[in-house]
Design a protein that fits this description.
- This protein is mainly beta and 197 residues long.
- The chain has two helices and eleven strands, in the order H-H-E-E-E-E-E-E-E-E-E-E-E.
- The protein has helices at residues 14-25, 30-46, and strands at residues 65-71, 78-84, 92-93, 100-106, 109-120, 123-134, 139-142, 149-152, 160-166, 172-180, 183-190.
- It has a six-stranded antiparallel sheet with strand order 3-10-11-6-5-8, with no helix packed on it. Strands 1-2-9-4-7 form a five-stranded antiparallel sheet, covered by helices on one side.
- The radius of gyration is 17 Å and the shape is globular.
- The chain starts with 13 loop residues before the first helix and ends in a 7-residue tail after the last strand.
- The mean pLDDT is 94.
- Keywords: Dioxygenase, Iron, Metal-binding, Oxidoreductase.
- One of its GO terms (molecular function) is dioxygenase activity.
- Belongs to the cysteine dioxygenase family.
- This is Cysteine dioxygenase family protein.
């Protein structure tokens, strides 16, 4: 039986980056882990020895790119670099019960958190609970059930790049399409990854 190769893309500072993430992930419960990862990711973004692979700066015209650059064989976490072309963004979505730490590597992103007010089957009532403009070196975390949010590159001409560290590979999520008022309709979505070479 042949083992399936885990995603592991080479880039400058790779070993330093992964060692720092490994240390943070081993730091305790999900609150301790995400706090340590936020600090670690901010440090790695500013570290002159660490440079993401060139492919993550290349946007894809019809969707924001999701490139998995590493999956830990020991801890199970997944690192995904996302490339946001001008105007690209997400609908309201969840993280399928996985904690996540997200950091802006380059450019500017608008992040809006949503609070779940009530649910009626596949209809969910959300209220925007705060937003922020995030620039290079900033990082935040999402711990279920506080995981509903949108991300958008509002720039007309600049690409943005973010790095997302998930507890495990995120291969699906719920997306929420706006119906009216504060009501949204949930659909389950399988998430694909784009080539990272």
């Amino acid at each position: 039986m042949t083992a399936i190769a885990q995603p592991d893309v080479a880039f400058a500072g790779h070993d330093k980056f992964i060692a720092a993430i490994d240390a943070a992930v081993a730091s305790g419960d999900e609150h301790a882990v995400t706090a340590a990862l936020r600090n670690t990711l901010c440090g790695m973004i500013r570290d002159p020895d660490v440079h993401l692979p060139a492919c993550v700066y290349e946007p894809i015209q019809d969707h924001y790119a999701r490139r998995e650059i590493y999956r830990s064989p020991e801890h199970g976490y997944s690192i995904v670099a996302m490339t946001w072309g001008p105007g690209q963004g997400t609908p309201v979505h969840d993280h399928c019960g996985l904690w996540c730490v997200e950091g802006v590597w380059d450019g500017q992103l608008e992040i809006t958190q949503f609070e779940l007010l009530e649910r009626d089957g596949d209809r969910f009532r959300f209220r925007a609970a705060g937003g922020m403009q995030a620039g290079p070196g900033s990082a935040g975390s999402l711990i279920p059930p506080h995981e509903y949010h949108t991300i958008c590159n509002a720039s007309d001409d600049r690409v943005a790049v973010s790095v997302h560290i998930y507890k495990a590979p995120m291969e699906q999520c719920s997306r929420f399409a706006h119906e009216h008022g504060e009501w949204y309709l949930r659909t389950e979505t399988c998430l694909s990854v784009d080539c990272a070479v």
